[in-house]
Structure to design on (270 residues):
């Protein structure tokens, strides 16, 4: 993960990269926020609902507490650093709203302390699955052809896009409601090429969907190949990655400890 983030352009000299589990204040603040969060509020969140529906048999026997309360931990991750803005995908907006609610409830009870964080959405708000364009692309998807990884080889990427679900209309048009598969291809193409949807459609005029999928694959390969090469290079230097994480933990704790100490005072732990 560290190698991938750096390869994608995160500069460890300007950003703090660290393992969350090495900063205990995340889990401790999660407990405080959990005491202010109701169970009905968590039941409305999408991750819980989706996982529950996929669970065979009785939900209470196979869906775990960790999944149920994970959004509270996400809220703690955000509020612990008194974040004002958070880059999120469209599917995470509801989880950020939980963080906003947690900040408001805490401030109402203990006095103004946490900023209410706002979302930062990119033009590509959600990337859909290549096998089910009605669902988001997810690294945990059991269908290996559904997800493109930045470390995939060019051959793997071409195969995944060649087998991507579209429809029987040959023209390349953008209509997320009626043509979700092709529209997903266009959104991915626009994102990796730095183009607008209109520019992508103009460039693709005359291509049928089969050939267009290969054009999208080539655009993704062009974007991901240097990243993949950098990931491989960084993985060959584990000492550097460990140094980045060690330094990141130190910097993160410098920020997290005083914030959580103040939280402890406000709620009466000290």
């Amino acid at each position: 993960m560290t190698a991938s983030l750096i390869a994608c352009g995160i500069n460890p000299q300007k950003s703090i990269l660290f393992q969350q589990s090495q900063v205990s204040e995340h889990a401790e603040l999660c407990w405080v926020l959990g005491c202010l969060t109701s169970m009905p509020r968590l039941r409305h969140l999408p991750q819980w609902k989706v996982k529950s529906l996929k669970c065979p048999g009785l939900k209470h026997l196979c869906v775990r507490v960790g999944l149920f309360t994970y959004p509270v931990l996400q809220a703690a991750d955000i509020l612990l650093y008194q974040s004002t803005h958070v880059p999120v995908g469209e599917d995470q907006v509801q989880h950020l709203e939980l963080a906003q609610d947690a900040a408001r409830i805490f401030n109402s009870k203990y006095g103004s302390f946490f900023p209410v964080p706002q979302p930062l959405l990119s033009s590509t708000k959600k990337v859909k699955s290549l096998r089910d364009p009605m669902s988001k692309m997810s690294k945990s998807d059991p269908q290996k052809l559904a997800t493109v990884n930045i470390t995939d080889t060019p051959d793997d990427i071409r195969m995944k896009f060649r087998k991507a679900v579209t429809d029987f209309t040959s023209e390349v048009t953008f209509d997320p409601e009626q043509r979700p598969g092709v529209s997903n291809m266009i959104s991915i193409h626009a994102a990796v090429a730095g183009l607008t949807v209109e520019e992508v459609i103009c460039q693709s005029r005359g291509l049928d969907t089969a050939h267009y999928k290969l054009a999208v694959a080539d655009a993704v390969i062009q974007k991901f190949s240097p990243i993949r090469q950098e990931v491989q290079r960084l993985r060959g230097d584990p000492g550097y990655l460990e140094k980045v994480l060690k330094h990141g933990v130190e910097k993160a704790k410098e920020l997290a400890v005083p914030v959580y100490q103040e939280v402890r005072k406000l709620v009466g732990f000290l």
Q: What stands out?
A: Residues 155 and 221 are 9 Å apart (CA to CA). The radius of gyration is 21 Å. The mean pLDDT is 93. The first strand starts at residue 85 and ends at 87.
